[in-house]
Each structure stands twice: as C-alpha cells, then as structure tokens.
Amino acid sequence: MENLFSLKGKTAIVTGGLGLIGKKHCEALASAGANVFVCDMDKNMCADFAATLQTESFGFPLDVTFSGSIISLRDYVISKFGKIDILVNNAAINDMVENPHHDPELGKFENYPLDLWNKAINVNLTGVFLCSQILGSSMATRGKGTIINIASTYGVVAPDQSIYKKPDGSQVFFKSPVYPATKGAVIAFTKFLASYWGAAGVRANTLSPGGVLNGQEEYFVNNYSLRTLLGRMANPADYQGAIVFLASDASEYMTGANLIVDGGWTVC
Fold first, then answer.
1. In this model, does residue 101 exceed pLDDT 80?
2. How far apart are CA 255 and CA 81, in angstroms?
3. Annotated catalytic residue within 154, 164, 179, 239
4. Does 222 score more than 90 pLDDT?
5. Is 179 a catalytic residue?
6. Between vectors from CA 200 to CA 252 and to CA 27, what angle results, nearest 5°?
7. Where do the DSSP E strands lie in the chain?
8. Which of 24, 88, 146, 190 could be cross-linked to 206 through a Cys-Cys bond (beta carbons 3.0 to 4.6 Å apart)?
C-alpha cells in the first residue's frame, strides 16, 4: 500500500500554489515523494515556499491566462526533470465572505459587473483550459500523466445564500454567480479531457472541496457547520489525502470522476 500511494520520482505542477489549500496540495505531494513546482504570481514567494518542501522543488511565477507563461513553465520543468507527471489546476478567483473589501451590493446577481465575470472566467476556466492544453499535451505525447482540476461543491449544487446572513437577519455577502458557473464548467471540462486523452494514457479527475476555515466570523462558521453532516468546516489539510490519492497509482483506474470531499454538504 505504501508503494501504491508513493509519488517518488514524479514531477508535479500546482497552479495557485500559494493559496490556502494550494500550499497544502504542494506539501502533500512533496510528502508523498514528488518534486513539486509551486506556481503562482509572486516569483520570490513561490521560491521561498518551494524551499520548505521535503523534496527537490521549485517556485515558478505563472500567469495561467497567458499561454507564453505556461509554455515557459513547461520548458523549465522538462529541462529540470524531463517530464511532467501531475498537473493540479488549482488557481482560481473566489469571492469569499472573509474578504473585508467585498461589496455586498456588487455580489447580488442583479448588480454583478461584467468585468468581474470576465476576469473570473479567464482565470477559473480559460486558465484550466490553457494549462491542460499546453502541459497535458506533454503528458499525452509521453503516454502517461494525471490532471487534477480543483472545482467546488458550488460546481455541484447552488450556493446557499442563507449561510451568509448574520443573526440579526442582515446579509453582508452574496456568493456571486461566476464562481459556481466556472466550477461547474470545470467539472464538465474534466470529463472532456478524460474522454479525449484516455487512450493516450492521461487521466483527468476533479476534486471538489467544501468550505475551508480561514478566519471567518463566528456566525458564518456556525451557519456553515449546521449545514454540513460532519458539523464543521474543513481544515486546510483535510484535502491532502484526496490529492495524493488522485495523483498516485492508487487511483489508476479512475478518470473523468468528481471526487467530492465536503463533510457531507452535498448529500442532502
């Protein structure tokens, strides 16, 4: 079983590698033996975080919306290790209740700005398309690899706007339309990749996480927890087992699937 989950000798790329769960993805893959490329917008922060990982890992500044940036990443990874084994498409724009600068009026569907819609589409969906196309093509040419696209429970079910209400009934946050729209599209796109590249030896699966503790106000944590069968929000490390499973030979006969890890949020 230890060998089944081992990633020793594997090369992994994680986009959005400096995010709340992006860092945990990187740590999990490195702990299982993979050499990890931590990819995000800040070059120095990527390099500093990569240096903390257990394996020979590297930071790389990446703009997932720009094909030239992704091509540079591909060439750099191949120059270092000769191959790409694992791609985790984690980079995304997510409007969060804990953001103190969020304007609740703009979050309403009636008022949601087109420029914010287009910006999120570009990162959350086009970024996944471009990274999969450029980096996944290298896997397909080699005849082996795995792509893990990070979606969300909100790609499976609609946002429950009531959990954002304060005890006095006021609503200071609305989950915007673009996040669930893009995450639902990511799930569908993953199925396309699985079908298209299955014969080429490339597996593609989705991981759909639930809400993660990140310093939210008590009322929100309570509302969310009451809506979840396990009675709590996720800790950032709660998805590490799932990411290693999807990246390793333990999931060798699994492709086109959506692995939902949400404490039971989507069950009822």
1. no
2. 25
3. 179
4. yes
5. yes
6. 45
7. 11-15, 35-40, 58-61, 86-89, 145-150, 202-209, 258-261
8. 190
